[in-house]
Amino acid sequence: MRFEIRNLNGLIRIVRREQIDEWNMMIDMNSRGILYGIAADLPAMREHKSGHIINLSSIAGHNVYPDSTVYCAIRHAVKADEYEIYGGVGEKNRPMI
Q1: Strands 52-56 and 3-7
Q2: Which of 22, 62, 69, 88 could in theory staple to 15 by disulfide, Cβ–Cβ 3.0 to 4.6 A?
Q3: Residue 71 known to be catalytic
Q4: What CA–CA distance (Å, rounded) separates 26 from 59?
Q5: Domain 3-93 adopts which CATH fold?
Q6: Residue 52 in 3-state DSSP?
Q7: Which of 36, 65, 71, 86 is catalytic?
Q8: Where are the domains of the chain?
Q9: What pTM does this model have?
Q10: SS3 label, residue 75
């Protein structure tokens, strides 16, 4: 059985003080990292018809906090990605959120 846990938290910044390259770094680390991991794991999980992916997000994925707009949006994307995976791989492989 394949079992993956990811926690890619980090880099909380204030939107009004950020540069676009820093936003891209936050997106790369906090959102694309999750997506790359899922893309790497799903083929083996489908082949073995088994496996679990646990992505640890943040309370910022459920609430928006002042001066953390980009970070909160990225953490919410983790939850949205998991719902999309649930629809794409079926009830049997439902992600735990």
Answers
A1: parallel
A2: 69
A3: yes
A4: 17
A5: Rossmann fold (3.40.50)
A6: strand
A7: 71
A8: 3-93
A9: 0.61
A10: helix
d(Cα 73, Cα 30) in Å, to the nearest integer? 10
Give the integer Cα–Cα distance in Å for 90 and 50: 12
For the segment 14-53, what is each residue's pLDDT rounded down to a tens digit? 555 556 777 788 888 888 888 888 888 888 888 888 887 7
Q: Of 68, 85, 97, whose CA–CA distance to 10 is shortest?
A: 68
DSSP character for 94?
P
The two structure tokens encoding residue 41:
């794991």
Q: Which residue has the higher pLDDT, 6 or 84?
A: 84
Copy the structure tokens of residue 10. Answer: 């980090």
Measure the N-to-C terminal CA separation of the chain; round to a whole number of Å. Answer: 20
- DSSP code at position 4: E
Q: Which tokens go with 22?
A: 């820093």
